[in-house]
Write a structure and sequence with these properties.
By secondary structure, this protein is of the alpha/beta class. Helix content is 39%, strand content 22%. It has helices spanning 4-7, 19-30, 42-51, 63-69, 82-88, 90-93, 122-129, 144-148, 166-177, 193-210; strands at residues 10-14, 34-39, 58-62, 72-75, 97-100, 105-108, 111-114, 134-137, 157-162, 182-188. The strands form three sheets. A six-stranded parallel β-sheet has the order 3-2-1-4-5-8. Strands 6-7 form a two-stranded antiparallel ribbon. The chain has a two-stranded parallel ribbon with strand order 9-10. The protein starts with a helix and ends in an 11-residue tail after the last helix.
Amino acid sequence: MSDPELTSLTIAVLGGTGPQGRGLARRFAAAGLDVVLGSRSAERAAEAAAALASAGRVRGTSNAEAAAAGDIVLVVVPWDGHAGLLASLTEELAGKIVVDCVNPLGFDKQGAFALPVPEGSATQQAAAILTGSRVVGAFHNVSAVLLEDPDVERVETDVLVLGDDREATDLVQSLADVVPGMRGLYGGRLRNAHQVEAFTANLISVNRRYKAHAGMRVTDV
């Protein structure tokens, strides 16, 4: 059951044609929310949205138009395009809740590892660029494979939500809660985003060793 406040809002997913973006869009649409997929190619976004039509209300367009249409805007783009995309959308994203889901990771023969970010984290970089937006970090550690699989009814994981704006983090926690099995938990201020983003490298290592799609659960909460 969706939060009544969320049902009146549009959820935009920038980078919505990638696995993580498509998966989150699928889950939010299935929960009854209005979803807009954004992409560098509006045509690709429209094709991805059409493939998700059975899940619920999903439409596709350019990243700029999706950013303008969304009330809550998720950023799910590759790290190397993160800063450039956000810098190009400061006007469209002004005054909105922007949820940064990006993990700055590198890969070599030993596996995944966290990359250094001058601002401290991708979420803090977003906040530095989008000074007129309400930036929150969330959905960093959720398996795209599970999100995209229509046969997986429940995504059993906790989502740490980070930010300095209590109203915004509360709303993003509620957004996580609409997905069956998923729970949104406050994880600290923006300055604590680095270790949450970096933890994805550990989960990738777990998944490779155990051939799994591991998530995270916080106990005693």
